[in-house]
Amino acid sequence: KGAIGYLTKPVSEEQLNDVFIKLNEFAEKNIKTLLVVEEDKSSQLIIRKILEDQKLTITYSGTGEDAINKMLSNKYDCIILDLVLPDMSGLDLLMHMNENKSKRNPPVIVYSGREINDEEHKILDKYSASVIIKGEGSDERLIDELSLFLHSTDESSNNDRRKKIRMIHNDDVMLKNRKILLADDNMRNNYALSRQLIETGLDVEMVKNGKEAI
Fold it and tell me: What radius of gyration do the chain's Cα atoms show?
């Protein structure tokens, strides 16, 4: 879930020292490392273009097996993963990462153009930090998500920027004071839904049929 590590009591002085070494490495690291798991070369170029202004060292991998080998031999701060790979699915790769308890897994941002069914969504919600479907506005969201995961504990990053990034992902803040038209011929549904929406901060106007909505 993003923890640097964990210890189970009782712990030795050596174990504690190892924790402080990890903390220092994490705090002193300025340039972040990113692994992009994407087979399509044109998509790799697009991602490189999107992230060219970011302070990142980017490594690319075109297969699941190569990505696993890279993760075993290197440390990454974040992973961008396409679900379509030539040797295994992105879902299989995510589950393989989860089974490897010997090291801390970085947050994974799924960035894919293929449709995702309900069952796959459940798996992705469990094993990935975020899911972005390629399309209009996805470039900006990818940058937002990366900024959130890579700089949320980076003291050198601008505090106002971090607040804005978090606000983008806070649905209640984004929806507050926006006006919504709620149309349902069952007024019990209308009142039940409107109560929840009003609590979120929305300005709700209810109508009972399509003619009133128009």
Answer: 21
